[in-house]
Design goal:
This protein is mainly beta and 88 residues long. The chain has one helix and five strands, in the order H-E-E-E-E-E.
């Protein structure tokens, strides 16, 4: 799935849709691939300032899904160019 197709699917998602997201988790120098499956609680476009010494009017956003997993656990997945999103 291309980045454009994934963003199109993200735009179409509604609360209650079941999704599968294959993504990479990175902590320090370690990284691993994982799959998150669950029901969409909400989707957001969060503004952040992760970049050092950017101009004050630069706007940086991340596409975020809040997903409720099988056991009722809520988890947040930030989509990037390495994520694969699938509607179930």
């Amino acid at each position: 799935m291309s980045q454009a197709e994934m963003l199109e699917l993200f735009a179409e998602l509604q609360p209650g849709d079941r999704v599968q997201c294959d993504h990479e988790v990175k902590v320090g120098f370690r990284k691993w691939h994982t799959t998150t499956i669950g029901k969409v609680v909400r989707k957001e476009r969060r503004r952040h300032s992760l970049h050092f010494r950017r101009n004050t009017d630069d706007k940086v956003f991340s596409d975020v899904l809040v997903i409720e997993r099988e056991g009722g656990e809520l988890t947040t997945v930030t989509l990037d160019e390495f994520s694969q999103l699938k509607k179930l």
